[in-house]
Amino acid sequence: MTFYLPLEIDRVIIFDVLFIYEEFPIKGDKTLAQRISPMLDKFYKSSTDVLTVSNNDIISSKETALILEQIFMNNMIKITFQSIEVLESIASYFEIEKLKIKILEFREKQSKFYHFFINNTEIENLMSFLSTIKELNEDNNEVILKKCEEFNISDSTYINALINISINSPKNIDKCIIDHAKRVNLKRYGFLEKFINRASTIFINNRQTMFLIHQLFEEKLLHFLDFDDDFLFPPLFIDFIPPSKINNISGYDYFDKNDLQKHKELIKKGENPDNLIQAIKNDNVELLQQYIASRKLDINTFIKASIYDRSIVSGYSINSLRGYAAFYGAIKCFKFLLVNQISDDFLSPMLAVHGGNLEIIHICVQRGVPMGNSLKEAIKTHNNDIICWSYENGYYNREDLSSSFWNSCFTYFNFGCLSYFLNNYIEYEEFLYYAVKYNNIELVHILLKSNFFDINQFWFLFFLIEIFDDI
């Protein structure tokens, strides 16, 4: 069905299961469209599946408005932040009062949920817990434990928060994290076992808890026999695993098994041991130049990755000096390398966002590097100022606010980012689904007690029962 409409509404298409405005699709329902109005029959022309209405047809504005009203009032089109501007234009031009009311109701509900979310004391409690646990270090373990007890947080959320710290920490604090889990286990029987199981599951799926798992091996809380016979361990585990079970990754350096003491020391540091990389990390451009000169190094050369670099557990691929400069936010080294490095192939917005240096990010943008694939990294590192700046300047757009956006926000507990986009860009209905999906029991309880969600939908109840047995 094609409407060729005057003025600001240039083109509206309802074809198959899509409602399209200026080539932007919004999900619809073809079967519903066919049955909602007998008057649509006369517009079937060349195809039984395509209904066409154009200015050449003898059709009044009133009749067109009636057709559109029937489509919208039968819930064929869902109002979202992606579709709302188009629908507001249609409602205004054709004076569809019922659609105007629906749009107004949508905005009011969004606004009410936004204020509910940012002002809810239980959500503030959850956010305070997350802020507290991030302060964990070797010197304050018992203090943090006592503070966390006051929040009454579920095992699931507590464990995910601890593992999240391990994955994102630039330093090796895994021993401290495991010690904390042991202390919690004294008060919550079974906590440590759940913690180990969760860390192992992530390790098997994507290796992100690799350093944490190695520490569990070190403390004899895990053994390679706890894993499937055909599971291949990364080279980091050469001190615990038979050679036949080690996955020798090409391009990664590791020391001989006979030098285990040095191996353990490097794991504890969690850094690429190359002096070049250390100079960049400290943003010491003079020392970097000295190393380059003494080695007679081609500045464009690929840098050999190290198994001891904690950045690799998060899926980064840093193979250039400039990449490391962006990753560490080392602006002086970055500028030096920018001037002397020939190709822009090594510019990575993801690494720049991780480093959090706005000047480096600006340089990447000015050189035409797309920012879209860096949103997950910004969410992960809680660089929310960069997220807001990038979105408001058009470097992120609504297409970036997809399921991966929600997944990242809940995986990395970035509710501050969610609250920013809740105001004008994302629909609150998704909240409960992802709270359940990521086992955030506290948030599920809070949302279920509110009046914003209809839990009587059979698919949601089934999903809830499958995921939780304690709600």
Tell me what you see in this structure:
The chain has three domains: 2-119, no CATH class; 137-268, no CATH class; 271-369, Serine Threonine Protein Phosphatase 5, Tetratricopeptide repeat (Alpha Horseshoe). Residues 1-34 and 36-59 have low confidence and may be disordered. The protein is 52% helix and 4% strand. Strands 1-2-3-4 form a four-stranded antiparallel beta sheet, with no helix packed on it. The protein is globular. The longest helix has 23 residues, at 97-119. With 471 residues, the chain is mostly helical. It contains 24 helices and six strands. The two termini are 46 Å apart. It has helices spanning 30-35, 61-73, 84-93, 97-119, 121-133, 141-149, 155-168, 174-187, 191-206, 210-218, 260-269, 275-281, 285-295, 321-327, 331-340, 349-355, 358-366, 375-380, 384-392, 403-411, 415-422, 430-437, 441-449, 458-467; strands spanning 2-3, 12-15, 18-21, 24-27, 252-253, 305-306. Helix 9 crosses helix 10 (210-218). Strand 2 and strand 3 (18-21) form a beta hairpin. This is DUF3447 domain-containing protein. Residues 351-418 form the DUF3447 domain. InterPro entries: Ankyrin_rpt-contain_sf, DUF3447.
